[in-house]
UniProtKB/TrEMBL annotation:
<feature type="transmembrane region" description="Helical">
    <location>
        <begin position="51"/>
        <end position="74"/>
    </location>
</feature>
<keyword id="KW-0808">Transferase</keyword>
<protein>
    <submittedName>
        <fullName>Biofilm PGA synthesis N-glycosyltransferase PgaC</fullName>
        <ecNumber>2.4.-.-</ecNumber>
    </submittedName>
</protein>
<feature type="transmembrane region" description="Helical">
    <location>
        <begin position="382"/>
        <end position="398"/>
    </location>
</feature>
<comment type="similarity">
    <text>Belongs to the glycosyltransferase 2 family.</text>
</comment>
<keyword id="KW-1133">Transmembrane helix</keyword>
<feature type="transmembrane region" description="Helical">
    <location>
        <begin position="356"/>
        <end position="375"/>
    </location>
</feature>
<feature type="transmembrane region" description="Helical">
    <location>
        <begin position="26"/>
        <end position="44"/>
    </location>
</feature>
<keyword id="KW-0812">Transmembrane</keyword>
<keyword id="KW-0328">Glycosyltransferase</keyword>
<dbReference type="Pfam" id="PF13641">
    <property type="entry name" value="Glyco_tranf_2_3"/>
</dbReference>
<keyword id="KW-0472">Membrane</keyword>
<feature type="transmembrane region" description="Helical">
    <location>
        <begin position="418"/>
        <end position="438"/>
    </location>
</feature>
<dbReference type="InterPro" id="IPR029044">
    <property type="entry name" value="Nucleotide-diphossugar_trans"/>
</dbReference>
<dbReference type="GO" id="GO:0016757">
    <property type="term" value="F:glycosyltransferase activity"/>
</dbReference>
Amino acid sequence: MKSPYNRPTGFPYRKGSFYLKVYTKFWLSHSVAFLWMCISIYLARHWLIDLSIIISLPLALLVIAGISYIPGYMNAFLVVSLIMDKQPVLKDENPNDAITLLIAAYNEEDKIYNTLHYIGKQDYSGPIQVILVNNGSTDQTVRIALKAKENFQLKMDILHEKIPGKFHALNQGLLHVKTPYLITLDADTLLHQSAIRYLVARVKSSPADVSAVAGSILVKNSRDNLWTKIQEWDYFLGIASIKRLQGLYQGTLVAQGAYSLYKTESIREINGWPDAIGEDIVLTWKLLEKRWKIYFEPLAVAFTEVPSSMTHFFRQRSRWARGMIEGLKQVKPWQQPQIYTKYLTGINLIMPYLDIIYTFCWLPGLVLAFFGYYWIVGPMTLLVLPLTLLSYSILYFYQTKYVFKPLNLRVRKNILGFILFILAYQMIMSPTSVFGYVQELFKFRRKWK
């Protein structure tokens, strides 16, 4: 996404005369989703009968529920929720609270200078303290960071953490944070010039029980190759839609370490980042367990570098899937105190089932369909597609009008990437996630990168 740096003026959200409570939105969305699923079950009755003749009724129900019923329910819930979502108006667009940026870095000599450069270009009026934690780098990361500190006149301290592991580096930095808010930032992530301002403005405009605000992550290297072009749409539509859904119900499930704001005392109360490959996932769920809420701010935009090779992507996303399982082990969905977070984290309990069904049933069924055998994949499976396109259309409109326009960003033309994202992306994502589940099941060695 192109990102010219002209300071946006005026907040895009408007107050409306009609307001639905979050509780009402939650149950209304479920009602519509349940109705959609009932219609799908009725329309798919012949499909169920035909498949049950081949593999038995219980197995047929298991397969079709994982391919059609449950995904259809979830997509319908997402669509209705997005239609009713309305971001609260900011009380103050220009806060000046002192904040700390916490960056864990391991061999980032080719990225860290640019990251610090964009920090120096922020339009935030409050004091910014940068803490860079060098986690055993063997390259010139520290030397280049010192050069950037001088060139951009940053208030920055460099710490050293010899024990490998991002959570070790973050916890080392946490010991030195003296401000009420801290922001974690990946060493390869670039901030839009108003990113910090909007993130702090959101937490300052939120109720006292909001402990974190997740920023919005977009792709900065989408022009590298076709694979990064596909991922651009995943961040712009897929991940953003899930973040908005979770933010609406006050339980964003991942205040991602790549770019999120936390209340410092909240992090200290749960003893910092946990020893986990998905340290940001587990940390977020522990915050939610404390009855704290976590919001999402779409205008607080940062640009990250996504994997440009299939191997790197496979490692990253399998690590994310493994992190989700770690989170489920440490904080059970039924332990969450709020009904919204019980539901949102509970969805993750069935994600392995859905990914396994997709990988070992839907993909082979797709091959069979090419040869005229519509036992598993057939016309009924296309019922999910209109909902998917509708949800992405709603979010595309929202992103372009209420996020990109006020931030002076422009959506690049990437039609081929969009088509492949819609048609083929899940074919890679589900098997990758299944591998991540297997890694966690058999306790494979964990890697930061």
